[in-house]
């Protein structure tokens, strides 16, 4: 068991070098990485690679509307944090478990279950602020440095176990238990210190960003009540212990700030409704019943969110006319809302009203030229409307602003296929596979691209260079398995 964990951990460790190799074709020496001070550069490299591994093995959401909402919320908090040394990247995992986690390079993962269980945006923001603090205070790196007297192999096992704990707490805890050099009690105390620090600094970030400081204690109390007598707590409580003193501390800390009324955010409730309908265990009919009940009994926070959830459920049940009627009413109240625009686009695409969809999105693009939601939707509509060439520039814009986004490569591949450009179709597929750490598959796609690039020397040179990079990365990975 231990050998298997360490082997997989070493594979994860190597994957972290890939991003750097793409930049300069120079793989860093991993032999002493674990016993040196864990630099910010190493954190960035490891974070990039672990994100690729996550994409290959976990249900990462490629939903532009939810991704843009989460990124804007997360970066609003980051803007009020101190000690920010790396860019932040917020992403969603489709998982009903209540959990959020942070790891190297400013990556913060959020389970959809967190939206399902947080009542307000301030509650959700309190969790994100906590995770942002884990990054700014370099808690993972500090954990490693606290063990730097251990042997290289054991340190590799510790790093792998920490990363495994982030993604799969129960497996990760087992891995930590098998790391011989780990002083169990001191490690627990060290973790508690990190949690206290993240709670304290996270609360300040939360308040400075304009959220309710009671969001943290309210969410903690809700979790404590729900799981007080359960034998299987949610993943978040495995990685973030919740003793009664922590709830009390959060309440006491919140009481130090002046009382102020912080209204909830409509967009949070729209995001929650979207997740309830599209990315939860609710059946389509159950989701429709949920929002019908909210509207009938007026138990909603925002009527618009309940209406939006109902429209989404009706869409999934193929009751398109009724769905569109609700969305049109919502757009009449707020014609710039991206949640409504996205669903209106889906409705127009469903009935092949491409010209109307293009007109709507082009007008919005003039107002929001960098919006991932607008650009992704418009690119998709152009591809569906038989105008794939027009989709390429906006997909390139998305990639320029978010190089970790796999969705534009997927749409781009479809666009090039419809244009009859086999070389760039396969090249786009290769880039998507590389983002999921599937280097063998990426090399195969590049070989296909090479065969279709005859007479284009610059494109051939570009493909050859990428093949060399992927081969080097793949050979090194295989050597460490």
Automatic annotation (TrEMBL):
Q: Which PANTHER family match?
A: METALLOENDOPEPTIDASE OMA1, METALLOENDOPEPTIDASE OMA1, MITOCHONDRIAL
- Which spans of this chain does the record mark as coiled coil? none
Identify which residues the record assigns to the active site.
131, 199 (proton donor)
Location of the protein in the cell: Periplasm
Main location group: periplasm
Q: Which HAMAP family match?
A: Protease_BepA
**Keywords of this protein's UniProt record, alphabetized?**
Hydrolase, Metal-binding, Metalloprotease, Periplasm, Protease, Signal, Zinc
EC category name: hydrolase
All copies of domain Peptidase M48, residue ranges: 67-253
Give an example GO biological process: proteolysis involved in protein catabolic process
Q: Which residues bind Zn(2+) per the record?
A: 130, 134, 195
Provide the protein name.
Putative beta-barrel assembly-enhancing protease
EC no. given is 3.4.-.-
Per the record, the similarity remark reads: Belongs to the peptidase M48 family. BepA subfamily.
Q: Which residues form the signal peptide?
A: 1-23
Q: What does this protein do?
A: Functions as both a chaperone and a metalloprotease. Maintains the integrity of the outer membrane by promoting either the assembly or the elimination of outer membrane proteins, depending on their folding state.
GO molecular function list: metalloendopeptidase activity; zinc ion binding
InterPro entries on file: Mito/Outer_Membr_Metalloprot (IPR051156), Peptidase_M48 (IPR001915), Protease_BepA (IPR030873), TPR-like_helical_dom_sf (IPR011990)
């Amino acid at each position: 068991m231990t050998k298997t964990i360490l082997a997989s951990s070493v594979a994860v460790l190597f994957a972290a070098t890939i991003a750097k190799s793409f930049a300069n074709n120079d793989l860093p020496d991993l032999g002493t990485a674990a016993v040196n001070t864990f630099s910010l550069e190493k954190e960035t490299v490891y974070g990039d690679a672990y994100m690729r591994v996550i994409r290959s093995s976990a249900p990462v959401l490629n939903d532009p509307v939810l991704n843009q909402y989460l990124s804007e919320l997360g970066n609003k908090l980051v803007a009020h944090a101190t000690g920010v040394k790396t860019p932040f990247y917020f992403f969603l995992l489709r998982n009903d478990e209540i959990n959020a986690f942070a790891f190297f390079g400013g990556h913060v993962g959020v389970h959809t279950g967190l939206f399902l269980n947080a009542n307000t945006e301030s509650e959700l923001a309190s969790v994100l602020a906590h995770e942002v603090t884990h990054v700014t205070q370099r808690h993972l790196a500090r954990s490693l440095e606290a063990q730097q007297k251990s042997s290289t192999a054991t340190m590799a096992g510790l790093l792998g176990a920490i990363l495994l704990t982030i993604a799969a707490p129960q497996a990760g805890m087992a891995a930590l238990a098998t790391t011989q050099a780990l002083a169990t009690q001191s490690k627990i105390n060290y973790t508690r210190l990190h949690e206290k620090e993240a709670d304290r600094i996270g609360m300040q970030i939360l308040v400075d960003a304009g959220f309710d400081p009671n969001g943290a204690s309210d969410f903690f109390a809700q979790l404590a009540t729900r799981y007080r007598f359960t034998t299987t707590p949610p993943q978040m409580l495995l990685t973030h212990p919740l003793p009664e003193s922590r709830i009390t501390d959060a309440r006491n800390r919140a009481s130090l700030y002046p009382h102020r009324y912080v209204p909830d955010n409509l967009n949070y409730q729209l995001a929650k409704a979207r997740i309830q309908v599209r990315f939860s265990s609710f059946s389509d009919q159950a989701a429709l019943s949920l929002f019908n009940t909210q509207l009938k009994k007026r138990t909603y926070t925002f009527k618009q969110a309940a209406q939006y959830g109902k429209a989404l459920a009706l869409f999934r049940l193929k009751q398109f006319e009724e769905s569109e009627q609700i969305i049109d009413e919502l757009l009449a109240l707020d014609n710039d809302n991206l949640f409504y625009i996205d669903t209106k686009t889906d409705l127009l695409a469903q009935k092949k009203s491409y010209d109307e969809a293009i007109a709507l999105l082009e007008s919005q693009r003039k107002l929001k030229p960098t919006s991932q939601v607008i650009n992704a939707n418009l690119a998709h509509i152009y591809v569906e409307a038989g105008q794939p060439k027009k989709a390429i520039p906006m997909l390139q814009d998305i990639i320029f602003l978010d190089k970790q986004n796999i969705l534009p490569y997927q749409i781009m591949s479809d666009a090039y296929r419809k244009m009859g450009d086999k070389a760039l179709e396969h090249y786009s597929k290769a880039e998507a596979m590389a983002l999921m750490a599937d280097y063998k598959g990426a090399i195969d796609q590049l070989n296909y691209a090479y065969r279709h690039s005859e007479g284009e020397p610059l494109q051939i040179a570009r493909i050859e260079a990428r093949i060399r990079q992927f081969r080097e990365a793949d050979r090194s990975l295989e050597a460490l398995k």
